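Q: I'm writing up a methods section and want to include an example of the input and output format. Could you take the sequence below and give the corresponding predicted structure tokens, formatted cleanly so I can copy it straight into the document?
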Amino acid sequence: MASKVVYKKKAVSHVSTDYRSLHSKHVVKRQQAVGYLRKSTCNSVSQVKAQATEAMAEPAYTVPEFRQRSTEEVEEYQRVSTHVGKGLAAIQEELHRMRMATKAQVDNLAIKREVQERMSRKVDLYEEGNKLPDFLVALRPHTVWEKTPVKLYCTVHGHPRPIVSWFKDGVPVNPLNAPGKYKIESKYGVHGLIISRSAVSDTAEYSAVASNPFGTATSKATVTVKRPAGGAGESCQLGLVPRLTQMHPSKLEVTLLERFSVSFGVEGGSISLACSMVVVPDLPNLPPLAHWYRDDHLMKAGPLAEMTVGGGLARLNLPRLAKDDEGLYTLRIYTKEGTTEHSAYLFVQDAVPSVAGAPGAPMSVKVFDINMDFALVSWKPPNTTNEAAVSGYFVDRCEAGSDHWVQCNDTPVKVCKYPVTGLTLGQAVHFRVRAVNSAGISRPSRRSQKVTAADPAESERLQVVNIRGHYDILIRDDDLEGYVTIPGEPTSVHASEVYQAYVVLSWTPPTPRGRARLWYIIEKCLAGTEEWTRINTGVKVQSPRYPIFDLLDGKSYQFRVFSANQFGSSEASAPTGPVQKADEHGVPSTPGQVVATRNTKSSVFVQWEASKVPNNLLGYYIDARPAGSKLWQPCNHKPFRHTRFVVHGLVPGETYVFRVQAVNLFGLSEESQESSPIAVEPALGRGVEYASPSAPFGITLLSCNGSSMTLAWKSPKHCGGSHVNAYYVDRRNADKLQWKEVNVSAIKERVYTVEGLTEGNFYEFKVQAGNMAGVGVPSEASKPMKCEAWTMAEPGPAFDLSFSEVRSDSLVILWKAPVYTGASAVTGYLVEMAKKGSSDFTAVNQDAVSHRYLQVGGLEAGETYVFRVRSVNADGVGKASQVSEPILAKALPGTQEIVCGVDEQTGDIFLSLEACEISETSQFVWSKNYKGIGDCPRLSASADGRTSRLTFTSPDKDDLGRYSVVVTDTDGVSASHTLTEDALNTMLELSHAIRNPIVPLKHGLNYEILEKGHVRFWLQATKLSAAASYRFIVNDKEVTSGEGQKISHDAKTGVIQMTVEHFTRANEGTYTVQIHDGKAKNQTSLVLVGDVFKAALTEAEFQRKEHLRKLGPHFSEYLYFTVAEDCTVLLACKVANVKKETKFTWYKEDEEIVLETAPNAMSGSVALPIPQFSRKDQGVYKATLSDDKGKDTSLFEVSGQVFDDIINAIAKIAGTSASELVLQCTPEGIRLQCYMTYYTEEMKTVWKHRDSKIASSEKMRIGGTAEMAWMQICDPSDKEKGQYTIEISDGVNVYARSFDLSGQAYTDAYEEYLRLKAAAFAEKNRGRVVGGLPDVVTIMEHKSLSLTCTVWGEPTPEVTWFKNEQEVASCEHTKVTFEGGKFASLVITQVTSDDSGKYSINVRNKYGGEFVEITVSVYRHGEPIPEPKLGQPKTAAPAASKTSTPVPPSKTPTPTPPKSQTPSMKSPTPSMKSPTPSMKSPTPSMKSPTPSMKSPTPASTPVPKSPTPGPKSPTPTRSVKSPTPTSRFLKSPTPK
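A: Here is the clean output for your methods example:
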């Protein structure tokens, strides 16, 4: 057990030295003024020896006389010194122990960090070009105590990989000559020489010589080994007792561990940069001396930069980021051996603008030339990529301690410099700047540092005079001026700042100044004139600076300045030379060529040619965009001064294009030319050495026959930068420590049979992998395996489980067949899986698969699984394989699948994959059905960058199957595709088309009829070159462009055409076009014969006629219909080429339609309105146009589908306007009514009861009027309760309205129906006059008058006649009769003037009655016929005969209820046979003829008007005519 412990300690030491070698290059650095330069510490041999001799030698010491002691004093001194020496030795030993313990701690931390780092990340390896060896980290000298280890490390760079040899004083160091003394290491490009127990004899000069075919390089260092004081061979001289001095922080040993990387922040956010470190000795009260730098400028701690050092951590916190903070940050720590430092770039991008499209904030606001009331503010402009250009800037200021900002300029200033005036002496202010563009104003910049308005020349006017070395007297220049009160004139007046926006005047203050507060007066004039004008009226300028803004463009000015105080003003200064405002320089010139090269997998190195005309250059802005995108993104947000920049934060594998702009105070230059596109991939060999592979793992036993064991293992996780090409196996007995090599020559495969074993013994194995860099570290020892022959009948375990095509829900697992097959051949495999951490394996496939792969589906995204495989033969299921590595069910970011396609140039069928990840050593491995393709003549594989293509040489059905590809040296990039027969046939057709090119046609040969009857034959090719040729062949004869046809083509559109101007019967036949374009050709034909030709000829003739028709007045749009909002149908048309004389006429069925307003053809459109459209409006409508230029006709048949379309259009408007169903009761039943704009029975209207369609019947009557549709329930009962719906269909949509006739609604309606029914019955059966009586009768004396009428009533009514409201009794002169209960008569014989008056008849029964009045006028012979008093007859009556009796009707009409209450209809005037004129009936709604005087029988039965009895009427009130129910057979009023 002890020996094993010793072995583990050696392994730990082995790894720790590797860590020390990796980090040694950061330990010894010297501060340089420019940047980072490595400085070799190798010295020549003579220099080292001289230093060693000087260090070991001690100068002779002579004791002065005053320090000489007596013998006793000397003895006492020696005794004390001995004790002190022992104490110092103990202190030194304790310090040495602490130092060694601390170093061991550092080594342990380094081991853990290195192991974690190398296990968690993939090693990026690069290939580089041929290079001489170069020491990146050189050897450094060591001075150690005896018996302590010495470790010399160096890092070598070169290609091919250099071989390093070690020398001691020029003699090669051979570890075999002194076993255990020396140990030579070489890992990851770091080489080391370890001297285990140093002795004084090891003091020498050691050198490392690196060589490759292109040269050698040497690094040297001196090792000095000392013995502790008091040891053998050492003498201790007497002297003073040494004193321990205070330690300076720069004497500490500091090793940086975790370092801050390239960082990205946003304006307004915060970020921390930190480095962890190990300090020796680690004293709590003595932290290391650390300085932070930004762009090589030392930073100071403050509110915007918080710095802390201690506790093994150096941190810089930036709490409020601004673009001013962007730059290269460096942490520099002073150590015992110089400095150690680390640098990384911080990028600060713009915050989201307050207004979309606004520019970014300016930065680096600084204040110069501060005076009493003047300050000059400058800043740097922001970068603009996709935003509008900056048009100007606003400068704001606020007093220190306040947040109230005041805008200094009213209009934006275009340059990045602005003079601010109006400050107050002693006032402390801050400034900030905002940028402006067309979209808005940016966020404000970070405010400037506080500045105070002061007189900068104040200190220059003070003098200090020292008197006798004891007194200092302060004297002002003003005190030496005497008693001068008026100041002198200013001098050196000039324009210090000249821009297009303003000019700043500067001058030197006057001498003498006068004994009062001084101010200045400025005047200007146009150059060459003496017309001076004061500029600063009302403003007292106190500073010798003043900005002038209101100068005219193109004008030159001169300026002069006066000094003034309370005592007066000076003479004018000398005028300036001519000054004209202009931007003298403008923006810098455009930067030159931009070149981008690879750097890392997420960064690119960009360099460019500097601007040839810098014009006070502030720096450069670099922009980038992905190839194919138009959206530029800024790479830096603060101008960069140099012409080389590393762009970080790019997407690995993406292709980018870069451009550069130069920046100065006038803005940004034009963009440079774009760089060539470059993919973001690691550079080849940029500071990274090839390394040996990591250790293999997963050693498993596949078979054993008692004397040999077959092993398998898994390949290393990291190949070290080149492919693994060798494996070496070692073995040992489990009870021994010594390992033995199994194979001397390299093993290529990961399966090996170890021979010469002893049966029954237990063995352990380990494996090492090798590549071009060397052999890597060995694997962990396998578990002890017993050498015992396998005799079981079942097969052994499968091995080498791997995964492919890992997605979020599926993967493919592959494995290799077992070496030991058992008693019979393997027939299949079973796969089991379990979630990581679980031992509960479940079967993936119930039936064994014969192939050695399986696609596993149904996985949970983001879950981790493990798998194992069991082989199956006829004897059963064998041993399970070793459990696979855990696999995460998650696709790699950017994973793509295999694409199957056809090459557009060659016609080759291929499979292609674009890898989402690739390394320099990656290879694409293709397989079919997961069997390697190898050198198959049917397939060829190629790779170009991240894309690999598998091309089929002669594809056929034998190539069908599943193809997969794996990208090596990646995190599992793989994909598969199944090639099916259908897909192959489709691609074979496309391949044939590409290999046998034709001129592709968008459209074959076709024809179209043009205006004037011309016929155009045309075709369109997808594209045509300028060299394309073609021929038109008609009926086997080539035709050319000439009279009658024109042939032309357009190469841009690919159109070839021939136009035939006179298309006749001779043009019947076959048309062919032959096209030749390079090697491609095509032919297309058109057969124009038979019915097809006749149709074309007919159309051509029609177009010719149309052309002629349009020469005169014609219809530009023939008749069509529209429906107005009021459902009026309009037959409309549009006309053209008309004039005032053009006549427009409407016809229906060839009968002219005359409108009240003649059609106006000059308006361009004419319409015929058809109100209340119905079936009667069907027919053929015609419109004609005619004048002296010609005539045109348009026909429109309203029938069939056209009629249905009109009805549907009406139905759409009606359905939209339909009201909700309204309940209306009638004597016959309950009626539901729906009001709408217009209703006609031709509309598709459906009534439903409880979703069942209702058909019109005696029970359910359906009808309507122009304003509404109704449905009446006759004699309703409870069966008719429920939901009623009317549906109006317009052919597309259905408009429904419903009413729930149930509950209280039905009860109320039913009661109203019963009431109306009873009222109608009474009305029907009451007594009434149904016809025969006139309103007025005029008769001559001595004639006979017969008033006869028909009455009706059930039961038979009573009839009473009245004259002047007095009942008439029957007598000889006046005879009253009532025959058959039907005919009532009043006959007056030999009428006289006394018979004139008002007669009336009262007919009544128990249901009611009616009262009708007749006016009788009697005149004498020879007298004019008197005018009737009640109404006027329509026609004059003839002369009266001797007897004037109304003619009774030939038939008694059946009484019918009136159909309308509308009293607008007039009675017609009947023809009169008697001289008595006919009179108008008093009832305006009824028709009544005038009675004939020839017959005593009434000729007709007039409907009398029922009068309302007056107060003197003897007829009781109850006998007055009963009111007719208003709703019976009447139109319900339309709701308002």
